[in-house]
Design brief:
Elements: E1 3-9, E2 23-24, E3 27-28, H1 29-38, E4 44-49, H2 52-60, E5 65-67, H3 75-85, E6 92-95, H4 105-115, E7 122-128, H5 132-136, E8 142-145, E9 151-155, H6 170-173, E10 177-186, H7 187-195, H8 200-205, H9 209-214, E11 220-223, H10 236-246
Parallel strand pairs: 1-4, 1-6, 4-5, 7-11
Antiparallel strand pairs: 2-3, 6-10, 7-10, 8-9, 8-10
Length: 250
């Protein structure tokens, strides 16, 4: 199976314009994401951008990029266009978040392995929640899974609900998972989900993966123990630099 890694990277972020070009310990964020992805078992890695400044940066470190429409509604749609622009044919795609400069290559490998399993057309990752702050934060997306490892639902609310248990005891008495926002798709499935109109559940929770579940697709979840750090606002740069020092990134 030939698998393409795509890093969506747009310039116009509301909370952090030019985010892919932000410097983190001497390297741009997009370069760090690209170099981490190259350490995985992906057959090819490409940046899907909408801005010549990002394209120039990718060229400067010898990376590969494709120019995509600036008006995509999501990274998934940008990945679909990037896949169609590639000269080679690929069997599957991994959508790598462009704002996680220290993405663990083993997480990418886990998704590549899931794509090899019979019947899997969509895959993502989850990590066990270890703090009440994460559990009750609407910014942390939670996921519940079937015995086979398929996602049953994603929500910004804590799941599953612990009936007759005080909030202070939820972490002690329950097991909860947060969603790690990296996806893998079979090539034909990526084209399928990108063509779907927004769904009721997706609009309600502002989570595009609910569109896929609502349309009857299965999402196989891998469980990871690796922690990632994402950059949402400029203040997160310091957090990323501290993470890099703790984990001995150059």
């Amino acid at each position: 199976m030939k698998i393409l890694g795509i890093i969506p990277a747009r310039y116009a972020s509301t909370r952090f314009p030019g985010k892919p070009l932000a410097m983190i310990k001497g390297k741009t964020m997009i370069r760090r994401v690209y170099e981490q992805a190259l350490q995985s078992k992906l057959d090819e890695v490409v940046v899907a951008t909408d801005d010549v400044r990002i394209a120039d940066e990718v060229m400067s470190f010898g990376g590969r990029y494709v120019m995509t429409n600036p008006n995509h509604r999501s990274g998934t749609d940008r990945c679909r266009e990037a896949l169609d622009l590639m000269e080679e044919n690929f069997d599957a795609v991994v959508n790598i978040q462009g704002d996680e400069p220290f993405i663990n290559p083993l997480q990418i490998n886990m998704l590549c392995d899931l794509m090899q399993e019979d019947g899997v057309c969509l895959a993502s990752l989850a990590k066990r929640i270890v703090s009440a702050d994460e559990l009750f934060s609407p910014n942390t997306v939670k996921v519940v899974m079937s015995a086979k490892g398929n996602a049953l639902y994603f929500s910004r609310n804590p799941m599953p609900f612990m009936r007759n248990v005080e909030h202070d005891d939820w972490m002690r008495k329950g097991i909860f998972y947060k969603h790690i926002g990296i996806y893998a798709y079979k090539a034909e499935t990526l084209r399928q989900v990108a063509a779907m109109p927004a769904s009721r559940l997706e609009t309600s929770e502002s989570l595009e993966q609910l569109r896929w579940l609502e349309n009857g697709l299965s999402i196989r979840m891998g469980i990871t123990e690796a922690e990632n750090v994402s950059i949402d606002v400029p203040a997160d740069i310091a957090k990323a630099e501290a993470f890099s020092e703790m984990n001995h990134f150059e």
